[in-house]
């Protein structure tokens, strides 16, 4: 085993990635499929040597905006972030999984679809659509990869079910 090998942690799903010594470093996370290239990933050096960390910070341009995770001291801020996210998710009625990285998502708000912005589809044999404006979409945010997803609100889900129940059979 290579003793100089530093473990790689996926910045999105926080899984440790073990490299095959013959193939070399992975280009994407095998768990959440996030690209592990420089533009979306950072490299953190973990260790007790504070002088090295200070030299690395001094070497970078001061006016560039640092990546989100880079400003955090050790794991303290990351742990606080995770605790607060978990606390919010625990208080939600629903917490869907992110379709990208499979983390539980945070309820972020409601989007109301009104008027001419929405044109309902008319299934064959129907005179009106099963979903009509106005209706509301619940918006969820993934705290790991920051993808957003929308789901029909509970009351509008019931309206869709009612429309299908009341449709006369052909």
Please tag this protein with its features:
two-stranded antiparallel ribbon, 3-stranded antiparallel β-sheet, elongated, 3 helices, 170 residues, alpha+beta
Describe the structure.
The protein is an alpha+beta fold and 170 residues long. It has 3 helices and 5 strands, in the order E-E-H-H-E-E-E-H. It has helices spanning 50-59, 76-90, 154-166; strands at 8-9, 16-17, 106-113, 135-141, 148-152. Strands 3-4-5 form a 3-stranded antiparallel beta sheet. The longest helix is centred in the middle third of the chain and has 15 residues, at 76-90. The protein is elongated. It starts with 7 loop residues before the first strand and ends with a helix. Residues 52-63 have low confidence and may be disordered.
Using the alpha-carbon principal axes, give the shape. elongated
Integer-rounded radius of gyration:
23 Å
Order of helices and strands: EEHHEEEH
Biggest β-sheet: strands ordered side by side in the sheet: 3-4-5
How much of the sequence is in beta strands?
5-15%
Extended strand count: 5
How would a crystallographer describe the biggest sheet? Answer: 3 strands, antiparallel
* Distance separating the two termini: 68 Å
* Total of DSSP H or I helical runs spanning 4+ residues: 3
Instruction: Detail the poorly predicted runs.
Output: 52-63
């Amino acid at each position: 085993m290579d003793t100089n090998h530093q473990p790689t942690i996926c910045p999105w799903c926080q899984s440790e990635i073990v490299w095959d010594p013959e193939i070399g470093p992975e280009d994407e996370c095998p768990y959440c499929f996030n690209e592990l290239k420089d533009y979306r990933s950072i490299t953190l050096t973990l260790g007790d040597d504070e002088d090295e960390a200070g030299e690395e910070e001094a070497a970078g341009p001061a006016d560039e905006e640092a990546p989100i995770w880079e400003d955090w001291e050790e794991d303290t801020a990351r742990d606080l972030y995770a605790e607060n996210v978990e606390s919010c998710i625990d208080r939600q009625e629903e917490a869907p999984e992110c379709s990208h990285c499979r983390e539980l998502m945070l309820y972020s708000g409601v989007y109301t679809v009104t008027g001419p912005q929405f044109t309902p589809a008319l299934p064959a044999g129907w005179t009106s659509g099963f979903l009509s404006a106005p209706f509301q979409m619940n918006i969820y945010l993934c705290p790991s990869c920051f993808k957003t997803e929308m789901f029909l609100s509970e009351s509008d889900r019931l309206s869709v079910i009612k429309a299908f129940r009341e449709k006369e059979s052909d």
